[in-house]
């Protein structure tokens, strides 16, 4: 059981949500992973939802669909889910039904049961909507973090479509597997832990998403109570940037959210930005 899986995922710098009970979840049988298997879910959530509602539905899907499975295939269906906004859902520490029967590949996948050999990541994507830069970069960062944490070469990332014996083509677009050589090259090029927090597009997107959700749900995390104190508080930093933002906060919508989030991320030092992101992830995630 990979009970340190959430810690491994957090090394990616992405938002991590732990599905309740994940440390005890797993299918019977051997689980000795030597690499990562990449998948897509083929869900159609983005056809019906967007923004904060899409994220909420994806979290429900991670907790129910990917964790429990379905009539034809019992869960867990993967160890990790990856949302369209780059959120990482930790689902199971043990063996999962994600790869099925596989062929030998890459010097580390042996013919037989793929579920015993790889950590399975199910990226939430219909496979017809395309892959956003945000989700693609998150996929690369997550794979790099897992390989680094468990001491594997970063080349040990295989698409389900590369190892499957049953004609799978995930992760892909319109029936075709994505360019996995380019994918692995991007994973190899990830620099973990050295990025400047306030200037990375990935962190800005995460921050913008959290701030937009906070405003949409009217949680008012910015200076709302003693448990939001960061020292100096995010509210104080916002006040320095925008003046009397407190009187305006409930009226902020749309582009204003993006503008303010960008100013905030650019102004925060790395340590404070990390605290803000972690706190928003925890508190807003619990409200959704």
From TrEMBL:
Transmembrane regions listed in the UniProt entry: none
Catalytic reaction equation(s): Hydrolyzes the link between N-acetylmuramoyl residues and L-amino acid residues in certain cell-wall glycopeptides
Designated name of the protein: N-acetylmuramoyl-L-alanine amidase
UniProt entry tagged with the keyword Ubl conjugation: no
Entry EC number(s): 3.5.1.28
Record GO biological process: cell wall organization; peptidoglycan catabolic process; peptidoglycan turnover
InterPro entries: Amidase/PGRP_sf (IPR036505), Amidase_domain (IPR002502), NAMLAA_amidase_2 (IPR051206)
Keywords for this protein: Cell wall biogenesis/degradation, Hydrolase
Claim: Hydrolase is one of the keywords in the record: yes
Pfam families registered for this protein in UniProt: Amidase_2 (PF01510)
Leading EC class: hydrolase
Recorded superkingdom: Bacteria
GO molecular function: N-acetylmuramoyl-L-alanine amidase activity
SUPFAM superfamilies noted in UniProt: N-acetylmuramoyl-L-alanine amidase-like
């Amino acid at each position: 059981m990979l009970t340190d899986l959430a810690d491994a995922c957090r090394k990616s710098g992405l938002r991590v949500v732990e599905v309740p009970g994940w440390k005890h979840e797993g299918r019977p049988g051997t689980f000795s992973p030597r690499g990562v298997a990449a998948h897509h879910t083929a869900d159609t959530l983005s056809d019906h939802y967007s923004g904060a509602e899409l994220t909420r539905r994806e979290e429900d899907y991670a907790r129910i669909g990917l964790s429990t499975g379905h009539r034809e295939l019992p869960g867990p269906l993967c160890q990790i889910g990856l949302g369209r906004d780059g959120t990482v859902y930790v689902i199971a520490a043990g063996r999962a039904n994600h790869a099925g029967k596989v062929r030998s590949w890459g010097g580390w996948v042996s013919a037989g049961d793929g579920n015993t050999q790889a950590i399975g990541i199910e990226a939430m994507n219909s496979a017809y909507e395309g892959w956003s830069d945000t989700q693609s970069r998150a996929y690369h960062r997550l794979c790099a973090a897992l390989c680094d944490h468990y001491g594997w070469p970063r080349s040990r990332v295989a698409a389900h479509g590369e190892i499957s014996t049953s004609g799978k083509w995930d992760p892909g677009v319109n029936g075709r597997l994505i360019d996995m050589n380019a994918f692995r090259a991007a994973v190899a090029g990830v620099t973990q832990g050295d990025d400047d927090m306030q200037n990375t597009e990935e962190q800005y997107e995460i921050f913008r998403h959290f701030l937009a959700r906070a405003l949409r749900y009217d949680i008012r995390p910015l200076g709302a109570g003693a448990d939001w104190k960061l020292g100096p508080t995010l509210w104080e930093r916002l006040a320095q940037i925008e003046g009397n933002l407190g009187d305006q906060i409930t009226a902020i919508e749309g582009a204003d959210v993006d503008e303010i989030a960008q100013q905030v991320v650019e102004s925060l030092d790395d340590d404070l930005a990390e605290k803000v992101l972690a706190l928003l992830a925890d508190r807003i995630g619990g409200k959704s």
